[in-house]
Design a protein that fits this description.
The chain is an alpha+beta fold. The protein has 2 domains: about 1-105, Alpha-Beta Plaits (2-Layer Sandwich), CATH 3.30.70.580; about 105-240, 2-Layer Sandwich (Alpha-Beta Plaits). The chain contains 5 helices and 10 strands; from the N terminus they run βαββαβββαβββααβ. The chain has helices at about 25-40, 70-80, 135-145, 195-205, 210-220, and strands spanning about 1-10, 45, 55-65, 85-95, 105-115, 130, 150, 165-175, 180-185, 235-240. Strands 1, 2, 3, 4, 5, 6, 7, 8, 9 and 10 form a 10-stranded mixed β-sheet that branches. Strand 8 and strand 9 (about 180-185) form a beta hairpin.
Amino acid sequence: MNRVALGLSYDGHDFEGWQTQPHGRTVQDELTKAIEVIAQEPLTLICAGRTDTGVHARQQVVHFDMAAVRPMSAWVKGVNNSLPPTVSVQGAKLVDAEFHARFSALSRTYRYYFYSSPVRDPFKRFMTWVHYPLDLQAMRSASACLLGTHDFSAFRASQCQAASPVRTLHAMKLIEEADHCYFEIHGNAFLHHMVRNLMGSLMEVGLHRQPESWLENVLESKNRSLAAKTYPAQGLSLWNIEYPEHFGIQELFE
């Protein structure tokens, strides 16, 4: 069997997330069908991180095993010919059997884009609109408590299937651009809805509905009911996945 890794980008607006669903349109469903056209055999795709309904990916990584032998161009141009315009394979390569798209990943980076404006901008469809002004410095200061290794149960979806709620955040930066902002969050792994739940609580601080110290109290409580609502999916993108250098996965996006 040959193991192939693909680099993938997609606009999540029209998808019910990554993972295949019997009743809905998912990225995994569309990609599996397109790959099987080339492979001419059934196969199973494994991804680095299962994105939720409406969440986007700038750099998603998947792998699959198959008996067919095809040139790497077939897994890029050939597969893209069968994909909708909102999904694109960026690169493909043969990898060792030891490579695993999920378990070989060292860390993941997400970005959450948002903008504050009295009216909604239809051209900012990959960002979340906040109607009221935000205190960005308060949000930045409050987020400092999240760095390091913590039990993130307070920001974990009730349907989360992770064996442990403990995760490590290596960096969390709030970047201001001319007409929008984004949080860039780098961690070893993430719980279901974790980033969107963190954003909901950070927005409470930014809107001065809660003090900066409140976020740390919520984190230490491990109680999801004390945190704010889950923020919308449209502002969230899986931005980058880091692997050991010897796998050469970054080549898929160059």
